[in-house]
Protein 1
Amino acid sequence: MECTCAQRDPRFSSRLLETLPGSEGRHFVIILDYSEEIKDTISIVKKVAKTLLNLFTFKDKISVKFYHEDNLVPSDNKADCLKISSKATPYLKDKILQQIENKQPKGEAASYKKIFEETFQILYNDKNNQTEKHFIFVTSGYYKDGSWSEVEKGFKDGRKSLECGVSFSLLLIYDGKLAGATYSNNKNLAGVGCDIEGRDNFMEFELGKDNNHFTINSKISAILSSAKNFNDFDDKVHYIMPISDRFGRGTTIDACKAVVDKSSSSQNPMKGAVCLSFLTNEFIREEWSQTENSYWFLIKRNGQTFIHPKFGQPLGSDELSRTVNILQIESSQSFKDEVYNDMISGVPGSKILSDVMMPISRGPFGATSQNKTLTYTWKAVPKSDFILTIVTSSDYEKSELKITNQGGAEDYHRLDLWNSTYLDDHICKYSETQVAVKDLAVIKFPADAFLRPSIYFKLETNETVQELKDLFMPGETATPRGLFKSIDVFKNIRLSAQATKSMDQYWKNDTSEKAISIIARYIGMENGFFRIYPGLLMNPSYDPRARPWYRLMIAQKGMTLTTPYLDAFTGETVMTLGQVLHMGKTSTEKAGNIAMDFKLPYFKVLLDKSINECETDGACVVIDRNGFVVYQSSFMEKNENSTLENQHIIKMHSRVAKSMIEEGVMIKNYCLEFRNNITIKEWFYSLDHVTEAKKYESNRNCLDYRVVPIVDSNLLLLYINDACTLPENCNCEEPINNERFGYCSNDISETNCECPCIQPVTCLSDLRITPGRLECNPEDKRKTDFSEKWFKGNISELTLCFDPECKKRDTWDNCESFKPACNWCFKFPNGTHVADEKKHCDYSDEECFPTPSPPIITPAPPTTPDSQETEDLSDGAIAVIILFSIIFVCSILGGIYWWFNKKAKRRQRNNNNNGNNSNTTLTPRANSGFDDDQYQPGYQPSGHAPNDRLGSVPSPTDTKDAAVEITMPAVYEERPADENGSVSTTA
């Protein structure tokens, strides 16, 4: 059984590995035996080879060769950087690692003499480089040389040519069948030609022995200090690339020095390294935000980038180092020419650059760009070789939340710690597996706001819940002791709570019938603060900023609708509609998102009520501006093994997608994502430029389609007429290793039809600095665990948090108006109609007539207008939240209607029609959808919408500038500020 703790072996930590080489680094040549002689020991070879790769840092040069028969083969002939000795970048090591895993043994044993000649020649070519040189030979022990004396002579000559300046390590991986003489020949090579104690190593790994990670690490770690002249040891402090603190306190940088016993007579007096860890936020105040208009980065004087917003947060405490030069991220020519040299000199300075192309995130998918004026201000960090730089754009403004509402008592999300009496008064059924608190919103803070992020959840008590409740009372100025990371962090969170508090009352008071279809409403802020209604217990790892919906919305303008995805609280499939919040009425600084969840059938109902073309023979598909399918009819089919999240139009409708690429409707591009251990090209699609409805006739005579944008949103409608019979497929690889996308094909280009994909960059030469190159925002790898079931009672006995009271609705139209919550039962499962007296309204998740003789349900008397508590929510039924000088209004509206962009033309057209409706078609296929057919209670016509008329509908066939406006649940509305520049907090 292998020891899992060996994965954290300090001898292979980045702290020690980056301290040992000093400033110069080392040169390693690794020769791996991949002849058929190792077929029985291939698993040991792979373990040893992977462990060897862990020895190397970005300071080292490496050359890895696979040998069999008379050939020394580079790991990948297509990659130039693998044919020669190159810097041990994470990109290079990742590529070699793939080859180690995938390459299969081949051919007979090779000639040792030839291997030694070629290897020493590689090292000799680097003779003038005053770095440590290592020759690591991983072999089965078998060779085809007839004369061992010739082998030894060649080995000695090679070492002498390098003036004994190379260490040699032979790692024998054998099957136990090796002849005694052959075994001795291999073992005795160590020390041949250069009699320097401690310079060479011999290690054996025999088949059948305990070759676990701990054993392999223990042996190979000896190579670390081989050939080190500790009398000339670099005594400098070495700064290690940022890592994630193991205790969750944030990103840290280690300052390390080697510990050497210089009085020791041993050739290997290295004892280890001593390090001091400090949080990166000690370089700069936490309040300085990393946004599109302001950010900071940290580099060394050699240009190596340590911290930059284009880097993702480190996840592990021993991740591979990144080796990206700042010129590869700040890639404008003006930065290189006017800023870079002055910056790395260490002399403080500032420079304004005009018309710099600045990458702008498109959320989780790709990037775009905008030319801006940027100001770079830099200063050296005292007693280090770091340079800290702050960048602001001409759009930057110092914005803070301006609060006129002083907030009130808050309910913290730890329902499991609430007073039982208080909880019993509010508990309700949220889903089949989760409960919530009715009529109450709760708040949650991000883990990184706490003093002890990794265990804060375990330290919370009943007293903590009450303390947090009191801390948000109006006028309260106290701060909790020993709970939050700092006073500033808590004050920032309290501001967010005060700014969003007024939404609680609106959410509670919104008892309109249409609001029942909304599962949850919430606000997520840039500081990680989260408010949700109805309130529920969340997993400690939940952070809205790490969720895909948040990253998508924060990068958009207008309303944003997500593709269906699994809700973190219930595990059920939901869609999220939301909009970004700004710091102020005219501010461009983003404060967070306001959003709401609903189930997929609700969106289907809205679509079906308004556009009957979606029920005709053609296809009606809703996509977002990344090309992902938000909705199509097949999404309603039950398939336990399928996911609806991030299904691209290329995969779902390949023929249409090919035509969209050919016609320039869908534009393909890539951006570079700098990850912690590898850089990738992320290929994505954009439809951001599509602003007008247009019909496209494909060169395939059997296909035409129409693209119609939905105004003020991230959505487009596709009407597809596809009569083609021959299949057309595009390349779409399934994601692996928790990636969003699959890997690209070898012939990926801007024109081929291929799903969004990722393409690892192996060689630094592929990262050429070119004008117009885009950098993606790094993917947030933090994972949110699904909320666990904590309620011990019987959930089925609880009342629904939002109860549409389906059983009380006595007519078809009254029942169907609450789809998808309610369903009109008028057929048995086999399709047979039932008697009129047995037709009834029931909950949509209940099976209608589960038995052949269902009980007769006597409907309750219809609700009269006098007995109604509220009317449907209108545009005027709003609530306010204040973020600096904005009122954010949530209202529930339904329906989709057509709208012309050119209002003057619309008014003129209406005047010419003298008020007469023109019942035109939505597509060339049929005249259907908006006629005068009436609905009758108790009967369900097919292919028509209820009688809430939408008026005149222009035809897309002759209207080039038509667009669709979707007035689904709106997420905010701006109101004028008062004379003081503030906004009233009363609805």
Protein 2
Amino acid sequence: MLFLLLEWDVLLFTNGWVPPAVYNHIATPTSLGMAGSIEDSGSALLELLRFFKWFHTTILMEFSNGSIIYDQIYNAILSLLARYRKYDVLSIERIQYSTKDEQSQKIALQRASDRSRGSYVFIVMQPTQQTVYGPSSLFSLPNAEDRDIFRSVLYLTTFAPEGHAAGDVNTLLANRSMTLYGTKAEKGIQPLDLYPIRETYNSVSLFAALVNQSLNQDKNRTLTDVEICSGKRLKSLVVNRTFDFPSGSVFIDANGYRHIDLILLTFNSASSSHQRAARYNSLQQTYILDKNVTIEWVGPAVPLDVPACGFSGLEGRCSDQGSTSAVTAGVATVTGSAVVFLTFSIILIRRLKSHHQTLEKRPWFAVADDVESRLDPITGESRKLFLRGETVLMENCGRWIFRGRDVWISNVKLSASTTDFTDQRIVTIFDMVHSCHQNNVNAFLGLITVPSNISVLLLEAFGDKGSLRDLLNDKLVSREFQKSFVQDLIEGLHFIHTSKFRKHGRLTSLCCIIDKHFVLKISKLGHEHLREIFGMNSVNQQVTPHETWKNVMWTAPELVASKADETDSHSDIYALGIILFETFTSLNLSETISLLSEKVPSSNLSSELVPDSVLQWIVKCCDMEPVHRPSIGVVQEELFATLQIREQDNLMSRTMQCLEMYASNLEDKVGERTQDLLEQRRLCDLLLEEMLPRVIVERLRANKDVTPKMFEMVTLFFSDIDGFGDFALANSPYDVIAFLNQVYSTLDVLIGKFDVYKVETINDSYVVASGLPIPNGTAHARAIAFMGLSFLKAYSESDFHGVTRLRVGIHSGPVAAGVVGTRTPRYCLFGDTMNTASRMESHGEPSRIHVSSRTADFLKTESQLLLTPRGKITVKGKGEMETFWLESRQSTVVC
């Protein structure tokens, strides 16, 4: 099935708990393990045992028909136990015991409680059965007499989502389930509490998010549906990312494997229900306790790893004391040796205490309480360092806050023979590192000793922009940044080589961190010196591709060939050449490794991305013979001259030089852009004034309100094209639009000659007003009358006259006017005057102007106009009205 989906390029979501062996086959380029691995639940159990220091355990497993999940968990736990020497499996026995009978389960717990008196704890693994914080999924609500025995039971189960977003999804799913299937969840249980529903929802949500990202990723070309939903394409978008859904956060690692968080539930006797005591972070493999919850133990405190009286109840202080004579003889025999041993112990303790007090006086000495994590975005809480066990120390590596400052913590494990952290050589090295103050060497801020693990935690200043390698992978390094980083790197290395350190020893682009001011700083100074003195290794070594080259890419060839451990300044120069090659090529790590594996030895190094003048110095730095490599002083002098770098230069000075160059012609550019802006604004204003009256535009430009206004007397013009309907039926839509555009363009030209305002055009209707938005006294009727005569003359003389003719109606009266809408705003007129003017047009005749008596009253004094009474006519909606025909007394219309 997996290979078939791979062939089809279909993304597979596996929502079942997967054993490690099966997952190795599922990790194909087109599959995702959404439910995580059963090994995660085993790790959670072991971490819980480590947290409470319980190292003696018994595994009880259920054998049920058709269920293999607990058998897989059992095998995973044994496999994990075998990795740690402290967990010695003395014997493995499988006890056949039925857990289906609830009363039998209670009896078993009661017997264990009676015998142990709080010395035993039962940890129940519930990987896929979510317990809600009421009745347990294994036990019904306990009776009052059974409450004490449940205090010895801890549950590890999956994480139930919370918050408003999860509540909305629960409501939606519950309503949909009731509508489609007529079913509802049991009281107190939400849909997302159920594992199959929650994981199916996560898979669908993740698939939708990936498809959207795939659709928007490549905007330069149109993708087909097959390309958008390609399994390989979608999986490449999901790895090493965290997705936040209402059902919780989903993190997918580089192999397409999801890490599942678990919660620890304990019994609350006061409320007879379960409560969440801690959350297990599977990615960091640590427990985060809820400070507001107190675990109720049967005994007075957390049960011991081994009971005071042993597992049999007859050991230690509870055993038979035997013959007192034997004890007396034993005491007499060892008295002399005990005195010598105690004397030696007291001297040793005092000496160690004196050295430790000296160590505490160092400014760089720190304790775990000095360090806290950044606030958790989910819980809003911070956590402290845990210094127990190697796995927990892995979690300590990373970004923390030390005395109010962001730091990066590295866990360095010393050799097993190193037990004295007050060794003068260690103190001397860290005194030197702490006193090292140079702008391109990362500051060493503190050290925390972990005697139980024979390791130290090193605290260095945190690089806000990551490492140089990170920026190169993201293609974020321009030419000016390249020069700045090269200058910082060479100056930092020059300082190290001329100081008491004489070398760095393990220089890589991963050690070159970038702070928030984009200044490169060399970190991990002094690590190599510790390794050479005591033997050590870094626990949080970063893993990179190409296993055969990841450790030797920056390592000088003489060290690789001889497998020598002692480095020198020549090996630093070799690493410098590799880093210079990385910086100027700006390729990602995989591309760089592939290119270097083909170009080494250095005589073959070449790249079109690297300037020839720089490439020759890279070749010299990477010479196969250490003695032929230049010193850092020569590199600094020659390479700075080649790249035209001054020692006083930095990224800020280079930026200022560019700004000065840009400012030299900035005034002319600003002038040109200003003229362009003014021209564009003029064009915008003209366009806006075509849509709205100028006075309205000026008020809008001045951020003034444009309120509707009442005009007591205006004259309105309505025209219609007679015969337009037949014309439209006989011609194509394109020809109809071209005809209207020709007509209205002709009329628009004539409007500019009169004191009028074009209101709108509706299909073949043309509406004009005079007397607004700026009142013009009684001239409004005259302006509309002469405009109407001009329209008739122009229409009759045009070549588009044909079978169509213009019909005009005019009326005067009050109207209300104002701007309507915010998207495509329009200046609109309202009132009965609009209706009457429209009726004058519709009751008129083609090629004639029909006016009302009110308009005629304004025009009777105009000698150039002829008003011919039409008599009384019946107007729809108005009754009888006396109207007139308007004509010109002259052949030429005078405006």
Protein 3
Amino acid sequence: MTIRHCALIVALLLFSRSGGMAQTPGTPPRSPVASAVRPVVVAIEFVGNASITPAELLYNMESKPTSNSSLQRFFDAYAKLMKANRRFAPRYRVMLEQLVDSLRGNIRYYNSARAASDTAVILRVYQNRGFHDARVTWGIRTDSGNTKVAIRYLIDEGKRYAIQGVGWLGMNLDTLPSEVRQQLLDRQFAKDGEPFAVELVNAERDRAVRILRDHGFPFALGQGVTVITRRDTAAGRFTDSLLLQVYCGRRYRFGTTSHRSDSSHDGTPVDRSLVLGQVEYKPGDWYSDRALEQTRANLNALGVFDRVRIDRVTHGDSSDLVDITFATQLRPQWNTEGAVEVAAEKRVQGWRILLGLSGSLAKTNWLGRAERFSLGGRVAWRPAEGGRLEWEGNLGGHIPSFGSSRIGLSASVSYSDLVEAKWVDRNDVEGVLRDRRVRVVGEAVYRFPVYTFFSNAQFFLNFQYNQYSGVGGYISDATVNKTGAGLVNYDCAFEVLEPDRLEQLYGAIENAMRSSIYRLQVLQGDDINLLVGRDTVARQQFNDLKRTYIGGVTLLHDTRNNFFQPNSGDFLNTRLELGLTGAFNGGFGKLEFDYRYHTPSGFRSSWAFRGHAGWIVQFGEFPLTPVNSRFTAGGANSIRGWGVRDLLVTAPAQLASFLDSIVGECAVPILREIDQESRRLQGGLGVIELSAEYRSWLFDLPTSSTLNQQLNQLQFMGYLDIGNAYFRDYTTDSSLVNLGSIVENLAGSVGMGLGYSTPFGPIRVGFGYKFYDPVDRIGPTRWFWNRPLTLGDVSWHLAIGHAF
């Protein structure tokens, strides 16, 4: 046995000290002899359960089968491999078996009383689903040594009863307003003829309470359900009649409304008229829970309160008015943040180290109208680019309530100066490729009423000025470097050593980069001489092409239970944009959908799914879509088998038809390599991303020690990602713009990661493996089984927060 095997066993023994959770009180047995005294439940079986799944029955029962932990399942497979190795000594096989057994997850021991009591649990589940005549018996099967037990439940479901008639107790429908009575009679859940189910009946009762509370009955309360069962065996009719008991109470109108501040710190108070301006009702209106909840939502949208409490006061039998008081607690009005950045970012020339500082300062409620002003910035130093600095700055303001309780306005201006790559041209002149951008954004937000599908609509106008500098030097650098490498890699050096052919090769590659691969950077660059001769319109409008005007709308729907750590609910972002170039003779239309769905999956685990799709249509005499408005794919929050913005389906740049054939043969593979490395600077006109992710906490230890508390924050994530970004432009990529090509080029990766939970989501590290690579590979080698496993097929990611 090697030292590595010894270290693995010792580490895993220490790791598994938390032990298993027994089904009955007591210490789990520590030896095979002791385990024979209390048989382990290895399986729970159901026979005859045609209508209800075993998983649902087990969820409600106290008896559970023994389950293996993820570590145990993994190392059980490892143990089988080791035992198959003839060089693995027998005594070490025994040690490994004991190690695997010690990693067993939740050990459950047989308890006859509990197994018998679970028959009542199963009956209750069936009765709650309308199977009132169900019958359940049980028995066990044991192994020869009585160490393992399988519990079997035999179920006779019987007939399922249907709902037939609903009555009301606790209120007289004839005394209710006609609109309330009609809504109650128009049942939505417990409908005649539908199979009986307790959850549907309770939903109907709760719906009645909500209707009453929204129509003047603030103290309406659901109190119970009576089920009257009818069996007509001869006619084959089995029905349930329902009596829903609801306390109605007295009907009230809204009286006075006031505001009280419960803030414990000094600060500018929010203007009382602004607070009361968020109220969604008038004095004398019938009381409504929905109006109060909408008012609460309006107050929270102001962004200045940590807490909003609603107090209701009535005046006995002498009045039908209920007075409302909104008690609020202010947030701290100054907010400062700062961070030190140490990062490795992937750029066109490979991974680069970045050292930087970032910070922001925000002041809320400066003038007492809940307005917010913010100032932020970032400065970074890039050693690999000659120690050059890049920086960003932004200034913004937000008015949450403008002329209406549901309309807010905001404006911001930002400037960025980013370093993309260092270059040295053919004359040994050094420089960098820079991307400078100015953005001015105005936005109006409309908040929809509560209980509607979309939560808000954001209407925006965006002016941006993009300018690249150093484009010519970077293209010259890439031309010389890639051509020099290509002369060796593609074995055409002996053909092109002649100076005229070498210059022709340089010119062909540089022309293809200027007119195709980096066309956007040239059009929005600072050197008009980089334009090829046929770009007459671009020369005339060279300065106008740097300006883009964008308008659009975003619709948001969000029912997630937690913004940073959701495990239930869904989210939808629908975005429509229309962009025009500075000369107003061309532009683009953009439509984008981003949907996410979260659902629990057992104890402390959940599934998350994402679908993201978008498309850009260019139009006009001079269509142009800036890089930052295009789609990208790849990275820690996208297709995780690739780096940030590393995915793009596009055809190779075209060479001039009049080139020497030998020069052309040498240029094609060089241009293909340049295309692959420059995807992150191009962006696509379409995107498809589909992801599925399983999330689970690794431990559920007692919180008696700090170590256990920290271990309980560890999360496991396993994921599958499929997608790609498509098309540099529709002219170059015309042969790819079809459904077959889009499907064929869907890249795929699988991976897993570990995260440490924080209030802002997990700090996670993980990897993605390319099981299907249509971008960098061709033919059968796109599939992982047709190529050797290499580190180049794995991408590692470090990020804060969930991928979606």
